[in-house]
Write a structure and sequence with these properties.
CATH class of the largest domain: Alpha Beta
Structural class: alpha+beta
Distance between the termini: 23 Å
Radius of gyration: 17 Å
Order of helices and strands: HEEHEEEEHHEE
Strand order of the largest sheet: 2-1-3-8
Number of domains: 2
CATH superfamily of the largest domain: Hypothetical protein ph0010, domain 1
Number of strands: 8
Helix content: 25-40%
Length: 195
């Protein structure tokens, strides 16, 4: 998937507007009509603290039948309800200290084995029985984990299973590539377009 700079900017603006609207109990504006934004793909929206890069919310959908112009604002608003931060939700006053990032996903590719993925360039979805978890490719790049460490952490942190569950006969891995939009400050600096 490719997007023009204008469409990438429009998606960031839609995500920002949806988050601001949710925090101020308003309705977000209607998405623009655009052929590029009518494409369908999975996406994740992430919020990080600007100075520490600590995660403040990351929610997504692996696949979607919705156009990006509708999906991205919905996922962005859901980012505010990331269950990992139920005790410390993002606030309106915090937005100037945050970065926003949108990750668009390719269709999932079934992997021949749990180690059949490009560590730095592909995200992974691991399914063990009926439990499923996902790491975006940014996780491996930011942590420096090996494939085995990444899979161990995915099992223990996201699936709630023993770290070595990915080695079992019921483990199935899918991989995907991404198009990253951002990260950039949630509140654009002077001279930058504002959403």
């Amino acid at each position: 998937m490719t997007l023009s700079p204008a469409s990438s900017r429009a998606l960031l603006d839609l995500a920002r507007q949806a988050i601001r609207a949710a925090l101020t109990d308003r309705l977000p504006p209607a998405p623009p009509d655009s052929t590029e934004l009518a494409q369908r793909a999975g996406c994740f929206v992430s919020l990080h603290e600007m100075t520490t890069h600590a995660l403040r919310g990351c929610v997504g959908q692996l696949q979607s039948d919705q156009p990006l112009a509708q999906l991205v604002p919905r996922v962005a608003e859901s980012c505010l309800r990331d269950p990992r931060f139920g005790h410390h939700r993002v606030t309106l006053h915090e937005l100037p200290e945050l970065q926003i990032e949108i990750t668009l996903l390719s269709p999932l590719r079934a992997a021949a084995s749990p180690l059949d993925f490009d560590l730095l360039n592909e995200g992974i979805v691991l399914r063990v029985d009926e439990i499923e978890g996902c790491f975006l490719p940014q996780v491996a790049r930011e942590t420096g984990w090996s494939k085995e460490q990444l899979l161990d952490r995915l099992c223990s942190e996201k699936l709630g299973l023993p770290a070595n569950a990915w080695r079992g006969p019921d483990a199935r891995l899918s991989a995907f590539t991404t198009l990253l939009i951002g990260p950039e400050p949630f509140e654009p600096r002077l001279g930058q377009p504002h959403g």
